[in-house]
Amino acid sequence: MDFILGSFVDQFILDLSPIELDMLESIIEEDDSNLFKWFTGIEKVPEHLCTPIFKKICDYYSINLNHKNILGSLQ
After folding, report:
1. Which Pfam families does this chain map to (predicted)?
2. What sign has the CA pseudo-torsion 52, 56, 25, 66?
3. What pTM was computed for the model?
4. CA distances from residue 46 to 3, 7, 38, 56 in whole angstroms, order as listed
């Protein structure tokens, strides 16, 4: 998922708070195949990743968060 997360990190890494960095680290630690499913809406994003930073990544790439109701608690 470097092609998704890499560009986002390059753009925002210096502006992220310590809490946001922890959230980002949690996302980066996930398996790439799961990240692909979540970012494409194939599967719902797990509750522990429904964070403001996940939404910020989706916003950065204009990923439709309402697609298949993938982000439940962030809507």
Report:
1. Sdh5
2. positive
3. 0.77
4. 21, 23, 8, 16
Alpha-helix residue ranges (DSSP H) falling in 1-75 = 2-12, 18-28, 32-40, 52-60
CB within 8 Å of 36: residues ≥ 6 apart? 1, 42
Q: What is the pLDDT of residues 12-70, one digit of tens each?
A: 999 999 999 999 999 999 999 999 999 888 899 999 999 999 999 988 887 765 554 45
Handedness of CA 22, 71, 67, 42 (dihedral sign): positive
Domain ranges of the chain: 2-8+17-74
Dihedral-angle region of residue 35 (phi above 0 means left; psi in -120 to 50 means alpha; beta otherwise): alpha
Contact criterion met (CB below 8 Å) for 58 and 39: yes
**The Cα angle at residue 56 between residues 50 and 59, in degrees rounded to 5:** 110
Could you tell me if 24 and 16 are in contact, meaning their C-beta atoms sit under 8 angstroms apart? Answer: yes
